[in-house]
Amino acid sequence: MGRHSHDRDDSRTVVRPFTGLANDEEEEWLSKMDADGWRLAGRGWAWYVFTRRPVGEGSAERPIYRMDFWPQSSAHDIDDYIAIARDAGWEHVVAYSGWHYFRQRNGASEFPEVLSDRESQVAKYRRVLRAAAVLWIPASIIMLINLSRLNRTAATGLVRTIYVAGWWGSAAVLVLMGCQMIRMWVQLRRLEKRYQKL
Question: 77-87: b or e for each residue (b if 16 or more CB lie within 10 Å)?
Answer without folding.
Answer: eeeebbeebee
